[in-house]
Structures are given as structure tokens and as C-alpha cells.
Amino acid sequence: MKIDKRITPTAAPKVGAAKGKGAGKSASSAGSGDSLTLTESSTRIRALESQLAGVDVTDAGKVESVKAALADGSFTVDAEVVADRLIDHTKQTLRKRPRKK
Length: 101
What we know:
The chain has three helices and no strands. By secondary structure, it is mainly alpha-helical. It has a domain at 59-101. The termini are far apart. 0% of the residues are buried.
């Protein structure tokens, strides 16, 4: 028996089945290129993400009032509140840390 070292390429099967909610929607492909169709909800999520990226999350009024209080020396720190929040933060950090055996 003789072994033929030439490799003949086989045609790869085309994947036509889609998974997920958009399974009923199909994309028409021009030529032999791949195509991608996003579902309506995916497109909506991307649009919302881009809108949220432009939203300013700082409270300009509060920032200005703190700056003014620092400038005129009237800004006060409640040490008890700071201590309580440090303790709470430390507790949360310790709970998340894996325990040693």
C-alpha cells in the first residue's frame, strides 16, 4: 500500500444555526465573507452604554461647597463617622479574604 502525501482540502461546512433570542433572525452574506447580526436588545444596550459614558456623575454643587468650606476654614470632619466607616470597610475586606487552613 502506498501513502499519498498530498493533502486535498475539504470544504468546511457553513454554520447557519444561531443561538440565543435572535435565533430566528438570519443575516444575508454577500460573497463568501462572514457576517454578524446583533439582536435588537444588544444594539440597544450598546447605545445606552455610549450614552452613559457621557454622563457626568459628579455633583458640581457639592464639590464647590466643599472647596469653599476648605478655603474659608469652616470644613469639619466628624471623626466618629470616619472611624465607623473605616471599621465597616475593614470588616467587608476581611469577609472577602479567603481563610487560611
